[in-house]
Design a protein that fits this description.
Strand order of the largest sheet of chain A: 1-6-2-3-4-5
Radius of gyration of chain B: 29 Å
Number of domains of chain A: 1
Number of strands of chain A: 6
Distance between the termini of chain A: 22 Å
Number of domains of chain B: 3
CATH topology of chain A: SH3 type barrels
Strand content of chain B: 5-15%
Order of helices and strands of chain A: EEHEEEHE
Structural class of chain A: alpha+beta
Oligomer: heterodimer
Largest interface: A-B, 32 and 44 residues
Shape of chain B: elongated
């Protein structure tokens, strides 16, 4: 269990906010897949947009834009700022 | 003896990098799109004749990595290793260099001859991104060719490079990572050196540390010790870095990609939000985004149906007298009737299906080239997810509204087999333009427009419910949406034309033969005088359960061929198009419901057969027939309380 109280999931970050990835709450396969896309702990991303009805999240990463399904995004734990 | 003038190359890269544009440019009309053996993934091959050389080009599917997340990745990796193309042309998006480089590094690890194509240089320049291509080539030890594929600039340079380097000695310098990792890699690759396994030893070493299941199995068969040692080394790395060794490797690639990018790219800062950003703001807005989407979809519909109706009636005038000519030329006989039904099937495809499919495809490809389709996936993903499929499934539905055949074909863009299948099944329940003919021409005209629209809504609800049920029934998780959001760009005419042409070609090759055969068959049954007998056999269902006139039995059989035939043949049978005289409102609605959901038309069945096998296709047909009959019967009874 995380004792870090500032930890949120990517889906809880507001549009336009920056966030630093802390951990992935998923299995090794998922963590690896995200890592292959450049999403790993310590990386800063900017949340651009989230769709209505808790849909996918658009983020900016290394200068390019990525869209992540809501299920995925909810497993990426971040710290704001 | 090796043919000296023949070269074999492969295009690889992430989606959205302009790979297809390059492929189309190089191969033009000498293209062939098939399937990878035993899979539903498209295989695009073509040939280029250039400066006396015959160059065979294979366009690999757009992929983000060479691990085993998807069939596309496995196919690509296996092809490169086993088929050993002379060059792998890696097409990279200059605007997203760092992200693209992560794939390039994986390619270089495979120790295959790579030529890097830096595409979209114009877009990069507009964004203030300047890239030192010489330095990039030096750092990666590969030739780099900058291009603007849409304008065709630089593309022949790629082939010139291929020809220039063809016979030269090829040396591979796979990328080097951090010291501790390199140590582990060299220990393992040393042991794998004499294994005679088909992959480069260094690459296998990296894959072992990445815990790639396929490679672990392969190496285990050769030597269990190496696998054990890899596990130990992996744990060591984990101890040093604090992550699983597979993550450590990904990290190394990310670091190297970032490092190279930093050395090679200079960005002049942008001042104000670009047009792209403003456009994106509106089109993905929580509220306006959906309004815009409804607007665009609505506009697309009106255009498709407007144009379709117009073109259809033109063809109607044109083909109207052909039957008489035929009879005059060939007389009236069993054989000539059969001959005519073959001709008529083709004419009907042209007259009824084509006028709608053509504008549909054109508009679809315009939207896709512009970049809007990705926004649709974004806005609709959540809803699609509740149906057990991906956001991209929405696109297949939209296409299916024009015609189920390309709708089902488009399911190939889904990543997992499970999703492809579920989406295809759901697409068959989407009312296509033929079904719309029935909905509008019968219910809309005689019962009321609101009833017609209500039927569409009803269809959407049913599809949603079926989707939800099937997602429970078919075990497995829907693949999460991960996609790169492309920038908006001006649609390119040549791309749209060639994509539309490819789509039309595929539709014709699949639909036409089946439709002709089925048409002739049904005509033969009709001429043999078996139709009345058949409609009698079906009357317990049609008359008793559905409350429809007995002739409906035959109509529904004709409907298997093409759904609008239900209405067309009814008019022929009754001798009038005044359906209101013959059918009650309740009957019309019931007939429309059956038409919507029972068996897909023959052309669609052929696609299902081709992509998913005859067993699954048959099961879908049978289930849908039963479902439609049951549903329509219930609807009929409910309506009898209301009307």
């Amino acid at each position: 269990m995380d004792d870090n109280k500032d930890l949120k999931s990517l889906t809880e970050i507001r549009d336009g906010q920056l966030a630093v990835i802390v951990s992935i709450s998923g299995g090794r396969a998922l963590t690896k897949r995200l890592a292959d896309l450049g999403l790993r702990s310590g990386i800063m991303v900017k949340v651009l947009r989230s769709a209505l009805f808790s849909g996918p999240v658009q983020i900016e990463l290394c200068g390019s834009r990525l869209v992540l399904g809501q299920g995925l995004a909810s497993k990426i734990m971040v710290k704001e700022g | 003896m090796k043919d000296d003038k023949k070269i074999n190359i492969v295009l690889a890269g992430q989606g959205n990098a302009g790979k297809s544009v390059v492929f189309n440019y190089l191969t033009g009309l000498h293209q062939h799109i098939g399937n990878w053996a035993g899979k539903t993934i498209e295989k695009k091959e073509g040939t280029l004749y250039y400066k006396g050389y015959t160059i065979d080009i294979l366009d690999l599917p757009g992929i983000y990595s060479l691990n085993t997340y998807s069939e596309e990745e496995v196919i690509s990796r296996e092809y490169i290793v086993h088929q050993k193309p002379e060059f792998v042309i890696n097409i990279i998006d200059a605007v997203n260099l760092e992200r693209n480089l992560m794939f390039t590094l994986q390619l270089l690890e495979l120790e295959c001859p790579v030529i890097l194509v830096l595409n979209m240089m114009d877009l990069a320049r507009k964004k203030g991104i300047a890239i030192d291509t010489g330095k990039l080539g030096h750092l990666l030890n590969t030739p780099v060719v900058p291009t603007v594929a849409l304008r065709g600039s630089g593309i022949t340079t790629i082939i010139d490079k291929v020809i220039e380097l063809k016979d030269k000695e090829k040396s591979y310098n796979p990328p080097e990572y951090g010291k501790e990792i390199e140590k582990c890699i060299s220990v393992l690759s040393e042991k794998l050196k004499d294994s005679h396994l088909p992959y480069p030893p260094r690459w296998m070493a990296i894959k072992l540390l990445e815990k790639d299941k396929d490679i672990i199995k392969l190496v285990k068969d050769y030597s269990k010790d190496i696998v054990t040692e890899a596990e130990e080394l992996g744990s060591d790395l984990e101890g040093i870095h604090g992550h699983d060794s597979s993550i450590v490797i990904s990290d190394e690639r990310s670091h190297l990609a970032a490092q190279i990018t930093r050395l090679v790219v200079e960005i002049s800062p942008r001042q104000k939000p670009s047009l792209n950003e403003k456009l994106d703001f509106i089109t993905t807005h929580k509220l306006f985004g959906y309004l815009v989407m409804i607007g665009i979809m609505g506009g697309m519909f009106l255009t498709v149906f407007g144009f379709g109706n117009w073109l259809s009636s033109r063809f109607d005038l044109l083909f109207g007298t052909w039957h008489d000519w035929w009879n005059e030329a060939f007389g009236i006989s069993f054989a000539s009737s059969l001959g005519w039904s073959a001709v008529e099937s083709v004419l009907a495809l042209i007259q009824i299906a084509l006028p709608y499919i053509l504008p549909f495809y054109v508009l679809l490809y315009i939207l896709e080239d512009w970049g809007y389709i990705a926004r649709i996936s974004f806005l609709m993903d959540n809803l699609m997810h509740r149906m057990g499929i991906h956001g991209k499934g929405c696109i297949s539905f939209i296409i299916g509204l024009g015609c189920n055949v390309p709708g089902c074909l488009s399911c190939r863009i889904m990543e997992s087999r499970r999703e492809r299948f579920i989406t295809a099944v759901l697409v068959t329940m989407v009312p296509c333009s033929a079904v719309s003919v029935i909905v509008f021409g019968l219910v809309g005209k005689y019962v009321g427009l609101w009833w017609a629209l209500g039927l569409y809504l009803f269809a959407m609800v049913i599809i949603f419910i079926v989707g939800k049920i099937s997602s429970r029934f078919f075990l497995g998780e829907p693949v999460e949406l991960i996609m790169q959001m492309p920038d908006y760009k001006t649609p390119h005419l040549k791309t749209i034309v060639s994509q539309t042409w490819e789509a039309l070609k595929e539709f014709i090759y699949i639909a036409a033969p089946i439709v002709i055969i089925a048409g002739v068959l049904i005509q033969a049954i009709h001429l043999a005088g078996w139709m009345p007998a058949i409609s009698d056999v079906l009357s317990p269902v049609t008359v008793n359960w559905l409350g429809l006139p007995a002739v409906t039995g035959i109509l529904l059989i004709f409907g298997i061929l093409r759904k609008e035939l239900i209405l067309v043949m009814l008019a022929a049978y009754l001798g009038t198009t005044n359906f209101g005289d013959v059918l009650t409102a309740r009957q019309m609605i019931t007939l429309a419901v059956v038409s919507m959901f029972y068996i897909p038309c023959v052309a669609t069945i052929s696609v299902l057969w081709k992509d998913y096998g005859w067993k699954k296709a048959m099961i879908i047909c049978i289930i849908e027939i039963l479902f439609a009959i049951l549903l329509a019967g219930i609807v009929s009874r409910l309506l009898s309380f209301m009307m």
